[in-house]
Amino acid sequence: MTFSRRDILKSTGASLSVLALPVLAQSRDAGPFKLRASAFPQTIRPGVRTDVWGFNGSVPGPVLRFRKGEIARVALVNDLPGDASTTVHWHGIRVPNAMDGVPQVTQAPVLVGQTFNYQFPVPDSGTYWYHPHQMSFEQVARGMFGAIVVEEDKPIEVDRELVWVLSDFKLDAGGRQVQDFGRMQDLGGGGRLGNVFALNGRQTGRDNRIMVRTNERIRLRLVNTATARIFLLDFRGQKPMVVSYDGQAVEPHPLPQGLLLLGPGMRTDLVLDCEGSPGESFAVIDRRDKGYQIATVVFDKKPPARPRPLRSPMQIEPNRLPEPDPSKAIEHFIVFEGGMLGKPAIGLVDGKALKVPEIMQDHALTWTMNYVAEHEHAMLHTPMFNFRKGEHIALTMINETEFEHPMHLHGHSFRVLRVNDRPTQFRPWRDTVMVSPRGSVQVAFVADNPGEWMFHCHILEHAAGGMMGTVAVE
């Protein structure tokens, strides 16, 4: 099985100013991809070179493109500066536990000068991404991330695909990255927010232009790789349809209230039928941050792609995931407490009960999950839950804090059943779900993937500040 040049061009799309991402595509018999982690300069803000960390000399790293059912083979080469060990986590892909890329839990960190070979089947089509799980609040912020596309056996009909990787960077006046990773106010507050929004590794804005043709159909794969920033995207007069959340097909539907909420770690696939006249344009705006413009979509003055928009189906072929049965699911609950604005919660650290202010001062931790504050990738820890393989699980998350938490479960996808005690419309499959301040979310899944799996907030400073634990499937 090989990829044609047309396949690769469709995966990135043609654009005027939005950076087209490099693609690595393999056949079933190909040798491993090589992902080389290193430091290098890149132009993020126009006219300025910024020292970043990334994969294969670009931020984002190359798009890894697979066909559903293939065996992925990826060799991670660590050429980072100093003594920065690292790993790669394959966010959203249901990998075998040994390949999950979590230091001290599934593997030892990959030291500078070392190579680690990942090999795993790719069971599900969809949009995923990769990033380190070692000092991730710093390494991801520096630029270590990239998208993964796994093609369906029978893709929906579109004219082309675009991959948009959203992130942010914290730069000083000279374009240098601000070296303030791991501050307590970020660990216990809203996370470390950058002052430069980036789309495919370049600063966003009205000059980021993408050319489309009238009545062209585009599949837009969006990935939020920011460590803390939540996007709320408005496509200004266009009517994109949601066809996938976190890599899993959903009944096609318009954006809720016309806006796309995309928290850290989350992905959404949209189908955009470009309805406009040649020469017109529309802005993509982030409504979370004072109407900041992400990009401008410009209708080419060339003749329309076709006389009228496509009417072919948008429904993606769903992956075969084990369907949870809520009637026989075992119920579990998890409560989030703490944070800078929280009430004086008490948590266990290394088996000792402490108040959150003491936890902050003595352990640089700020959050508790079920009254435990966990050091990042602690070697001596107890899983929050122990599941038997094949058990049906109903998990309710209760947020007693003043902050949003995009919660991510490794190794599994789950059905989102209820948000703030209200049933969801589509019961979507997700692997990362947003829990609002003082809100709750109920999910259900079948614990079918053996191993010890991370469950954590994907505001990566929150994870480093205590919102990180594991569940075990035995």
Give average pLDDT, whole number: 92
Q: Using the alpha-carbon principal axes, give the shape.
A: globular
Proportion of residues in extended strands: 35-45%
User: Which regions contain 5 or more consecutive residues with pLDDT less than 50?
Assistant: 1-16
First-to-last CA distance: 35 Å
Structural class: mainly beta
Instruction: Kindly state the percentage of residues in helix.
Output: under 10%
CATH topology of the largest domain: Immunoglobulin-like
What is the CATH homology-level superfamily of the largest domain? Cupredoxins -  blue copper proteins
What's the story with the biggest beta sheet? 7 strands, mixed
- DSSP summary, beta strand count: 35
Q: Please tell me how large the radius of gyration is.
A: 21 Å
Instruction: Work out the helix count.
Output: 5
CATH class bucket of the largest domain: Mainly Beta
In the CATH hierarchy, the architecture of the largest domain is Sandwich
How many discrete structural domains? 3
Strand arrangement within the widest β-sheet reads 12-11-10-14-19-16-17
Could you please describe the fold and organization of this structure?
By secondary structure, this protein is mostly beta strands. The chain folds into 3 domains: 5-151, Cupredoxins -  blue copper proteins (Immunoglobulin-like, Sandwich), CATH 2.60.40.420; 162-299, Immunoglobulin-like (Sandwich), CATH 2.60.40; 326-473, Immunoglobulin-like. The chain has helices at 5-12, 136-142, 184-187, 356-363, 460-464; strands at residues 23-25, 33-43, 49-55, 63-67, 71-79, 89-91, 115-121, 126-131, 146-151, 160-169, 196-199, 202-203, 209-212, 217-224, 231-234, 241-245, 248-254, 259-262, 267-273, 281-286, 292-299, 330-338, 346-349, 352-355, 367-369, 385-387, 391-399, 405-409, 414-419, 422-423, 429-430, 432-435, 440-447, 451-457, 468-473. Strand 2 and strand 3 form a beta hairpin.
